[in-house]
């Protein structure tokens, strides 16, 4: 292994990551509100003043709503929301840079500084991240990741500090903040155990003992769920979506889609067309077997190739809250990859860092060029509601909701004839789709 040679190298790597992130997202700052933004922010008075925010407490995701209220009251409009998201994403990329540096000895990287830079740039420039950055309502995934990454770094910092309990408590507080942004942060203790597990002196009992602040926070969070009605309704809506067995089958299809589509930078879509699976089929069995094979690979390679075992395990543990047992209305979304992407980034970082010097820098340049280009192009889709839903209709052409949303976007843009055609297409795909029928009737009356 080769240690980082000079602090100046670390500083320059941080600037590279920050500038690259801001550069590829800068053009998206003027894009319009989209999709759920209208209900969650624009038409939601509870996030449009501080007095209204406080009147809505206790409620779900309070820390996320704090940032919405701050953005709304800033006076900068939609650009202020997006500037916050871009800055947040750039900060997260720097946290990934620091995390990979910290884990480098255990992951057995040949060139830790190069590996950390590659991983951070992949995280920053991967086009699937646009749904958590350019799509304002995707902020929940990015902000939750901020506190999760900070919690992991604080927990790892405790191992080098003469007062480790202070850092562990800070990690616990960051976990609490992550849960206050999005309840899906409950996967964090699993991620911390992965970071513990790659240590050569790993022992289950001592590792679990070091997670005591997170156990306290998790217990507190579970108690709050029991007393805050908003969380009851959220949980009840989840269970009413589909049975747990159906959801496991459906998520096998969903996770396979994430791996073979958005993770590879293709089939990016704000509204993927994935149906609910109610029984095993040959194709679903094949997809489940492929996923199981990847999980087994992570276990087998854990000690032999820790960078591979850790990367694969991080990916699946980070997906557990959204893509396992508990049902969601949407089977998957691109933003589910946001924190999970750290795992694949670690794997690619090793593969690049272990190559000859010339190949390393050529690969790094290719990552910046390809990732930056794809992200800029994907951000163009978010420019207007019409452009977003036209792009979505191209990737989910047989989903009625997509055509209804495209019809409404056309209608708002004054393109009446195109709106009618889009509503007709939605009703052709789903004759019982009452929203499309009402929208069409209102337009022609």
Can you give me a brief rundown of this structure?
This protein has 23 helices and no strands. With 445 residues, it is mainly alpha-helical.
Can you describe this structure?
The protein is mostly helical. It has 2 domains: 7-242 and 344-383, no CATH class; 390-444, Tetratricopeptide repeat domain (Serine Threonine Protein Phosphatase 5, Tetratricopeptide repeat, Alpha Horseshoe), CATH 1.25.40. Helix content is 71%, strand content 0%. It is built from 23 helices and no strands. The chain has helices at residues 7-25, 37-42, 50-55, 62-73, 77-107, 112-125, 130-133, 139-157, 164-181, 188-197, 204-209, 212-227, 229-241, 244-260, 282-300, 306-319, 337-340, 342-353, 357-381, 385-395, 400-412, 416-429, 434-444. Helix 8 (139-157) runs antiparallel to helix 9 (164-181) and helix 8 packs parallel to helix 10 (188-197). It is globular. The mean pLDDT is 92.
């Amino acid at each position: 292994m080769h240690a980082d040679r000079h602090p100046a190298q670390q500083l320059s790597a941080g600037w590279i990551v920050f500038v690259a992130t801001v550069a590829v997202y800068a053009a998206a700052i003027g894009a319009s509100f989209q999709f759920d933004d209208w209900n969650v922010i624009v038409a939601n008075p509870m996030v449009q003043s501080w007095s209204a925010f406080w009147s809505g407490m206790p409620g779900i995701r309070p820390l996320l709503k704090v940032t919405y209220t701050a953005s709304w009251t800033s006076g900068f409009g939609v650009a202020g929301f997006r500037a916050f998201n871009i800055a947040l994403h750039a900060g997260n990329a720097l946290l990934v840079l620091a995390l990979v540096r910290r884990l480098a000895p255990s992951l057995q990287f040949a060139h830790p500084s190069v590996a950390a830079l590659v991983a951070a740039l992949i995280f920053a420039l991967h086009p699937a991240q646009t749904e958590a950055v350019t799509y304002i309502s995707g902020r929940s995934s990015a902000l939750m990741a901020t506190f999760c990454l900070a919690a992991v770094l604080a927990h790892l910092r405790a191992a080098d500090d003469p007062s480790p309990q202070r850092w562990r408590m800070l990690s616990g507080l960051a976990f609490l903040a992550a849960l206050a942004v999005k309840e899906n942060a409950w996967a964090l203790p699993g991620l911390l155990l992965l970071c513990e597990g790659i240590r050569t002196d790993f022992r289950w009992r001592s590792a679990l003992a070091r997670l005591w602040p997170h156990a306290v926070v998790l217990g507190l969070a579970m108690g709050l769920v029991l007393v805050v009605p908003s969380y009851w309704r959220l949980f009840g809506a989840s269970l009413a979506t589909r049975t747990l067995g159906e959801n496991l089958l459906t998520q096998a299809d969903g996770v396979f889609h994430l791996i073979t589509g958005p993770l590879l930078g293709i089939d990016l879509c704000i509204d993927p067309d994935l149906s609910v699976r109610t029984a095993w089929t040959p194709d679903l069995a094949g997809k489940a077997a492929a996923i199981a094979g990847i999980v087994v690979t992570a276990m087998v390679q854990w000690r032999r190739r820790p960078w591979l075992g850790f990367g694969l395990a991080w990916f699946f543990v980070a997906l557990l809250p959204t893509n396992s047992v508990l049902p969601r209305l949407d089977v998957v979304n691109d933003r589910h990859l946001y924190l999970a992407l750290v795992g694949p980034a670690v794997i690619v970082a090793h593969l690049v860092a272990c190559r000859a010097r010339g190949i390393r820098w050529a690969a790094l340049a290719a990552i910046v060029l390809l990732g930056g280009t794809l992200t800029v192009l994907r951000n163009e889709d978010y420019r207007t509601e019409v452009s977003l839903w036209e792009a979505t209709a191209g990737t989910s052409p047989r989903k009625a909701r997509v055509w209804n949303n495209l019809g409404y976007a056309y209608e708002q843009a004054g393109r009446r004839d195109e709106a009618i055609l889009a509503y007709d297409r939605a009703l052709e795909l789903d004759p019982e789709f009452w929203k499309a029928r009402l929208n069409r009737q209102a337009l022609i009356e």
